[in-house]
Structures are given as C-alpha cells and as structure tokens.
Amino acid sequence: MTVVDTPGTVKPAPADRTSVGQAPAGRRDRRRTELAEYLRARRARVSPGDVGLPPGLRRRTPGLRREEVAQLAGVGVTWYTWLEQGRRINASAQVLTAVARVLLLDAAEREHLFRLAGVAERRPADPDPVLDPSAQLILDALVPLPAAVSNSRYDVLAWNSSYAALFAASRTRTTDGRFNSLWCTVTSPDCCNPFLNRDEQLPQMVAVLRGAYGRHVGEPAWEEYVRSLQDASAEFRRLWARQEVSSRATSLKVFRHPVVGVMRLNATYLTIPGVPEAYVAVYTPDGPEDRARVERLAALPPGGWTAPCGHSRTGPTR
Fold first, then answer.
1. What is the phi-psi region of residue 11: left when phi exceeds 0, alpha when psi lies from -120 to 50, beta otherwise?
2. Known SUPFAM superfamilies for this protein (predicted)?
3. Where residue 290 sits, what CATH number does that domain have?
4. Do 150 and 251 reside in the same domain of the chain?
C-alpha cells in the first residue's frame, strides 16, 4: 500500500501506529471513513453548472465526477480518488482549501473538512467580529453581574454597565485605541489598576495569550499586538519569555473599586457559537459581602463612572 504526501508524490505508507500528538489508529480510521463519506456527499450536491462546466450527457450519478473535482482543484485524479476512498494519504491545507472551493463549502463545512482530514486550518481571526444583537441583550440582562464579550487577544468587544463601572479607574488604551483587559492590567499604574491579586492573575493571563498566539503566529495584527505589549511592559516581556501555555479556566479575581471597595469575584468563561475565539466573561460574587458590593456597583448612576479605558458606552473607539 502507498501513501501520497502531496499530489504527485508517492511514498511507502508508514506503519499505522500512534505517536505523541496523534489520535489512536482506530479513531484515525473512523475519521478517514467519515472524510470519504463527507466528500462523496458534498460532491453529489454540486452540479456542473454550479462550477461553470457544461452538463454533459449520460451522467450516472448526480453532481460532479471525481475527475472534474480533481481537475478544478488542481490535483491528481488518483490522489483525489484515494482521498474519497478513505485511504491513508496526507493532504495539505492548501490542497484541502482548493477542494473546499470546488465543492462550494461554506466556513462551517470547510472547518469540518479540515477537522476530518486531521489538518489545522490557519485562518486569521477577525478582531472585530459581528456580534448578534442578542449578545448585548444578554449582557445587560446579567446586571448586576459584570459581564463582557472578549476575543482571544483580550480585546473587549461588548460589555454591560456593571463591567464598565468595575473598570472605571482604568483608562489606558492600546496603541490602536482598543479597550483591552490585558493591556490595562500590565500598563495601568498601581493607583488605578483594578486588580489586587494581579501578581497571581497576570501570569495566567499571559499563558492563555501564549496558547492563543500559537494559532496566529506570523499574522501581522497578532505580531504587532505582542510587540506593543513587550514595548509597554518589562513585566510582560519577562512573563512572555517563560513560554508558559495555559487554557482559560474559572478563577478568583480580587478587584479594588474607588467607590464600593474590594470585591472577590469568580470569573467564568462561556464560548459563543459562530464567533470563533470569542467568549463571554461573567464575574460572580465569591460571598455575601461581595454580592452586596456588586449590587452597589450596579446601582451607581450612569454619570458616576467613565466607560472602560476612556471609551464611550456604545463601543470601543477605533
């Protein structure tokens, strides 16, 4: 049996064994079967006219022929046939992108294709995704609990009034004018920094950022963001150089507010379907005294605070 590394390059197939970072052999076999079935089903749904081909005569099956997909994608017919048969072949992201284009896959379908093929798709994340209007309604309904939507770079995309009040004294902004919770944490002076347990929380925040950065290495926006943090903070440079990686998890954060005092809040993170790498952070009181202070925070008059990092209530200044 042979395996194709890239179209037109054939080499002997290695033994099907599990190594570090690989799925077990049985799971890989099942994934290849799912990939084959998925490709055949998607091919059957694309008519020749959909991709600019004449309908032709005597088509025994609906949709495109395998050789037509291969030709339009710029790959070998044998290679594509083997891919549809679930054979043990490797496919690059570039080739899978070409196949997805021919099969007219949307973003969710393309992501599914890449996942079944065991290939990590690299797509630049949109720093300003379009949030459904219901996101703001949900945030507002969570008051008195502070809550916000952020992306994997810690840019805050939407928030409620309690969250705005919580960060009233933190007015620093990134170099491009964004409200960014990590930037505020590393650059705000001690007098205005809302975190009391900053020394405990900041290493975790940087480790989470390092994990997200691994999906975007080389992207200009990410490289500039990390560079700006390094330029702005010696502490960030030290933590970044440690190469520690972590995932986002519920954690206790201690905040100091100039009006209501100290609050111990548990930060819980919820993902948002359809908005890659965005999440909702909700801060819940750790005890009865903290709850009373959160309620006082939410009751502050709208003119009693400045929105996060100097932004208006309607959204970040660009």
1. beta
2. lambda repressor-like DNA-binding domains
3. 3.30.450.180
4. yes
